[in-house]
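hiii so my PI (J.) wants the whole complex modelled not just the main chain, which honestly fair. so below is everything: two entries, each one labled with what it is. i double checked the lines twice but i was tired so who knows lol
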Amino acid sequence: MGGPSEIQRDRQNLPYFLKFKDVVDILEIIDNSLCKELKLELGKLKLTVERKR
Amino acid sequence: MTELGFVEETLRDGQQSLWANRMTTESMLPAAPMLDNAGFRKIHIMSASCFESCLMYLYEDPWERMRLLCRLMPKSDIMVLIRSRHTFGWERYPNDVIRLLFECLKRIGIRCVLIFDGLNDIRNMEWQLRIGRNIGLKVTGAITFVESPVHTDEYYVAKAQELMKIGVDSVFLGDASGLLTPERTRSLVQAVRQAIGENMTLEFTAHAGTGLSSDCYVEAMKGGVDQLCTASLPLSYGNSIPSTAEMIHQAHQLEMDTGLDQDLIHRIDDYFYWVAYQEKRSPGKPVQFDPLGYKKYVGHQIPGGMMSHLVSQLKDLGIEDRLPEVLEEAARVREELGWPAMVTPFSQFVGVQAVFNVVQGERYRTVPSELPLYARGYYGQLAAPIDPNILDRILSDSDTEPMDPLENMDEPLVSKIRAEMGPFSSDEDLLMTLFNTPQTLEKYNRNKRKINPEPVLATPISALVRELSKRHDLNSVSIQKGSVKLTQVF
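here's the output for the full assembly
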């Protein structure tokens, strides 16, 4: 029986390449990271974030 | 293929159960066109508690919220929940107030009313069902599920038959406390289905707090319900209800057609993850069933929202460690008071009495002022009589005459309020005055926020850029997709 977590993973059909849920995940990664520079790749999207020194 | 309908609850039950009704109208509006086109049978947008929170905490006009949502969802049957004779307020209102409320709702675009009474006393719902139909609203009579020795399947069948006699467009079976088990759902849905016949629409909801709701929904589908209440993924589970996405999956497993646009359902789910983030709220998470926890909960049945209030009250009294004793006492009080449903206001009667009994060390030495009224029938007929010895204690300092819950209900109040408190800017304004205390209205008027009627739905990428630009600890951000590169230096 497919539970909610299985459903949550099944989001590949969205018509846009980046989803709001991805944005939330990305922002959480950035906010919780202590790194000076962070490089994220999500499919075709590359994101580089540099913190103030 | 059997067809199964869905009632959308993100904007009502979902946010009420998980976010204490704090979702702003501006967060709701961008989702409205998607909800309108997804294929839901009904979209539920308002309740008494939602109406009150809108005013008291968000300082938003609930009428304006309903008006805007109705305008953005012209294809859908928009529904509101009506709490017995209290409707959107705290008093028991007479017939003319209810008529005026329903006329206002119809005028702004509401098409359906779902009416419930915490005691399942159908007399408390009859006027609303009749007047709703008379003025052209679709009316649904709710039966509130309560787990107790007197709340048998036969009890619920009798209630459904009473609703059928009055005349309803659908019968709603609702378990607000998450107490239904799959086994009980099976027997209950079958019994009610048989009693109301195949031609009457049967709707079903069960809350997910004990972890049993998804299995109950499957049993309800097998038992022949026509419509299920569900919410978007971030506003489902926890103390809310199952998600639309999971129930579509379950319906397909049972070879049922839902008529829902699954792409739109995914987009709606995704959008509300963004709302959760922006409004700093947690998405609901599925609860694992705990047999021992269920056994304890089924005794006192104190709802989640009230439990946190109870704990804070005990903390203030310095007796937080006596919570298990209070809960045990609440189970006993509930039984002695005739097994009321643990919904407002009855859950408060039981909880407050249990605290008095434990703190004072003598049971029923003090009783809340509403309890004698409850015992005399002011709120309606109880499912079982109150324990005679307890009844004597409750009524020891009060009148003992039985009360008729419908007494004075045909005496006009609207004209009286107009004369005494008018003029009002509109009928909606009059109703706001009736439903709220002067203090609440004064605070609301002082802080009232104007709702932007056309908030722009950003794309995820623009939302990301905008959010990153708010981070003051960042030096630069580069986003590249294919040959397009955007660099922002702060």
